[in-house]
Amino acid sequence: MKVGVFSISPGALRCGLAGLALSGSVLAHAAGEYVLAHVAPFTGPVAFEAAEYNAGIRLALKAANAAGGVHGRQLVLRSEDDGYNPDKSVALFNQLGATETLAALMPVGSPAMTKMLKAHVPEALKLPIVGVIPGAEPLRTPLDPYVFHVRAGDLDQYRKLVDHALTTGVKRVAVAYADLPFGAAGLAAIDSMLKKHSMQAVARVAIPVDGKAKLPDVMNALAKATPDIVFVISPAQLAGDFIKVFRAMGMTAQLGMPSYGNAETLCQVAGNDAARGTIVAQVMPNVTNTAIPIVRRFQDDLRKYGEKGMRPTIFQLEAYVTTQFTLDAMRRAGPGLNRARLTLALDSLKKYDLGGFAVDFSATKHTGSDFVDISIVGRDCRLIF
After folding, report:
1. Is 330 left (phi over 0), alpha (psi -120 to 50) or beta?
2. How far is Cα of residue 100 from the mean position of the Cα atoms in its chain?
3. Residue 220 — left, alpha, or beta (φ > 0 → left; ψ -120 to 50 → alpha)?
4. Least crowded by CB within 10 Å, which of 10, 140, 249, 326?
5. What is the C-alpha separation between 232 and 255, in angstroms, rounded?
6. CA-CA distance, 383 to 264, in Å (whole number)?
7. Could you write out the three-class secondary structure of 111-163?
8. What is the pLDDT of residues 295-349, one digit of tens each?
């Protein structure tokens, strides 16, 4: 059903079914609507993240449509499931490039984006892509003229995590990383940062993405190194599985991870007690702090336009913020809006503040934010900032 935004229930999305319902379908739309796309793995190991980002995008578009849309036109979201398959992702983007789709928001997955960039797909299609997940450095350098990174990069997050750990007197650091491109990039980054402090990791252990049964072997390798802290570089679901086994095997080292370690997922998978005390870098403001204007706006729109059962999460906030930047660029581009004009308008968002969260884009700089905060998973899974 089309109600301004192509979507299905958030419950189905959280079960990873939205992509199945929409993938590969040619969705009809009314003349004069602006079409945006979200290509992400609604099925597979990062389905939770894809569903949360999709919910945040839908919320922003519903609020915008209720206010009259952009240049008097309504906004439509086309959601496509790439199943965490890089070849399928490239194929879907090529299909979108041949349609009226104006831009793509929040693609998720380092394997897919690695392949997309290597094949120069965004440039070939001249299709703006806004808000890439993850923020791994190989996806950011060199600059792609059509790819805009909203969140602070992984390097900023690792630097914050390492500095936080060292200021608390940590001496023995271990790294457990998902056997994915962004995991390997994270390991290299932390190794480099430790080297600057004349330190090195006491253990470096790969986590098989589809091998929960192998997690005890990972823990045994870590236990032999007796670390004070283990940095876990992993998607949320796998990180939750990791924490559950880590604590069940009696390991007591501190755990720290970049923003992919969504607290809600960690607690759902590992349990509140196991997840408590985990340090998580955040690339968005505290989602409960309504003293921050953009957070207050998000919460207000959630009350007015949120779908049944929707609760505010930091992933939804990130997608909502990313969509707002895109909509503001669309407004700047003027009524004769097309991909080329939108790309130029995105480049014009220099030191652009939505209200407590800013980006700084230009034709030579497509990494928008450097905001990173440290949070700790507290009692009842509440984040302490």
Report:
1. alpha
2. 25
3. alpha
4. 249
5. 7
6. 10
7. HHHHHHHHCCHHHHHCCCEECCECCCHHHCCCCCCCEEECCCCHHHHHHHHHH
8. 999 999 999 999 998 999 999 999 999 999 999 999 999 999 999 999 999 999 9
